[in-house]
Write a sequence for this structure.
């Protein structure tokens, strides 16, 4: 009956407070994510917060502060693997970064709760909610500002849709025209689609361009035999 020997009412109540704190604050963070229909919603954020709190609390009771610090370090890195599962790449777009960051923050809330830092856990919860709600209007306002192609740090892609049989020749022509315009290519990919078409995507090295020059390159490519469509796009770097 080792349970009777090891049970301490004070330690039990301390663990209860830690887990309850993590549960409540994880619920608050998760409720906002659930409302916005994110992939990691209410239950996921609660479990991350409670799990982190339980590990830290257990380590603290077994090895005191030194043990808790070691476990927190593992939680910080371990949650990264869980967050990676929430990140999805769709074509040129990456989704789920904010969800992964929220999971990481929920784990931090749980660690604070497990270390009996209830006030700090509450404060961190406020900041997480603020980041996910109060900053949304600012993000939308910034996104509505037109991009200055010459001043912004961005990645530029030239996309050519062509007949599959002409891919090799058009790929070489694309490289020649971009180099002639002094836009060296960092990477070039060919993706074969269903049927007899393929997409050639050239990513440029330059971080500053003249839109008119790329327009001219795209226009000259669009008139080549075997080319069905040609365009270019810009992606702001994180």
């Amino acid at each position: 009956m080792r349970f009777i020997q090891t049970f301490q009412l004070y330690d039990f109540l301390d663990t209860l407070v830690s887990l309850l704190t993590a549960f409540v604050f994880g619920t608050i963070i998760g409720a906002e994510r659930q409302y916005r229909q994110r992939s990691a919603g209410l239950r996921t954020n609660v479990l991350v917060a409670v799990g982190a709190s339980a590990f830290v609390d257990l380590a603290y009771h077994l090895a005191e502060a030194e043990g808790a610090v070691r476990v927190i370090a593992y939680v910080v890195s371990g949650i990264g693997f869980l967050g990676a599962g929430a990140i999805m790449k769709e074509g040129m777009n990456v989704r789920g970064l904010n969800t992964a960051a929220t999971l990481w923050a929920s784990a931090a809330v749980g660690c604070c709760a497990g270390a009996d830092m209830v006030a700090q856990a509450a404060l961190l919860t406020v900041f997480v909610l603020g980041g996910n709600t109060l900053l949304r209007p600012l993000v939308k306002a910034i996104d509505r500002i037109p991009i200055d192609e010459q001043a912004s740090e961005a990645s530029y892609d030239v996309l050519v849709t062509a007949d599959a049989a002409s891919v090799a020749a058009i790929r070489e022509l694309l490289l020649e025209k971009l180099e002639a315009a002094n836009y060296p290519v960092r990477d070039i990919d060919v993706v074969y689609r269903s049927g007899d078409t393929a997409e050639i995507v050239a990513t440029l090295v330059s971080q500053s361009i003249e839109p008119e020059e790329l327009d001219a390159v795209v226009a000259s490519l669009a008139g080549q035999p075997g080319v069905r469509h040609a365009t270019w796009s810009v992606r702001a770097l994180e």
